[in-house]
Amino acid sequence: MKVIGISGSPTEDSNTDTLIKAIVDATGADNEFVKLSDIEVGPCIACMKCVYTNECVLNDDFKWLSKKVMDADAIVIGSPTYYGAASAFTKAFIERLYSKRHVKLQAGGKLVATVALGIAAESMVSEWMGNALRAGGMEIVGSMTAKGTPCCFVCGVGESCHYPVWNAYSKEMTGMDLGIEAAYEGYLELLPDNKPYEHGSAKILKEYRSVKDEPDVMAEAERIGKLIREKLQSV
Ligand SMILES: Cc1cc2nc3c(=O)[nH]c(=O)nc-3n(C[C@H](O)[C@H](O)[C@H](O)COP(=O)(O)O)c2cc1C
User: Fold this and answer.
1) What domains sit in the chain, N to C, each tagged with a CATH number?
2) How far is CA 82 from CA 55, 85, 120, 164, 165, in A?
3) I need a labelling partner for 169 at 20 to 30 A (CA). Which of 124, 125, 147, 220 fits?
4) Please, are residues 50 and 57 in contact by the beta-carbon 8 Å criterion?
5) Atom in ligand 1 nearest the alpha carbon of residue 17
6) Centre of ligand 1 from the C-alpha of residue 45, in Å
7) What is the position in ligand 1's atom list of the atom closest to the CA of 81?
8) What is the pLDDT of residues 204-232, one digit of tens each?
9) Whole-prediction pTM
């Protein structure tokens, strides 16, 4: 059994990486981990040359990566949420899987699990990844989301910046309750004079939110990994 973990997070030792690795480890299978930001996988250029061959003609690291993906019994793909969407690394990789879905559905039936990290809109990324991979004929065994560290916690000026993520995704700005305050209770205290996009004022109570400190989140990763193992063993 072979499982490949693919991370679209460019951050070193990121929460996305941690959850992908936890799922992969729980499968107990031979495995490999690839960080897309360490290699070159550009976007699809819609040349359609892959239509009859199921091979992408672009000359970058997707050439060997796609072989590993096709060779794996299951893949675990994770992405952080950037502007309400998957990271560009993740998006480019998934676009390139287009080459595997014509005439012959080459990745048909392949087991996949997805991981999406974010502050407010990670469920949109999870949904998008699921739909895109399902369109390629893959079977989504599990998809999990988790709250990560807002970059504004670590950038240095988040506490006084007028435009941090918690203001950008605030009720005042979006007209929706995206759950920032609830999700970051114990991590962030918005001060009374904070006015989104006018005056930033907050206190960061814990600088880093690590999924390793969240037993329920880690348990969900393990559950998905075990589910992949069971599915692979039953084939
Ligand atoms: C360019 C950029 C855009 C971002 N946009 C969003 C966003 O739209 N929604 C959100 O929930 N988080 C957003 N974030 C925050 C990241 O999703 C968050 O920091 C996440 O925990 C990163 O995961 P990682 O550390 O595993 O890479 C953004 C971060 C960056 C760098």
Assistant:
1) 2-148+209-234 (3.40.50.360), 149-208 (no CATH)
2) 29, 5, 10, 14, 11
3) 220
4) yes
5) 26
6) 26
7) 17
8) 999 899 999 999 999 999 999 999 999 99
9) 0.96
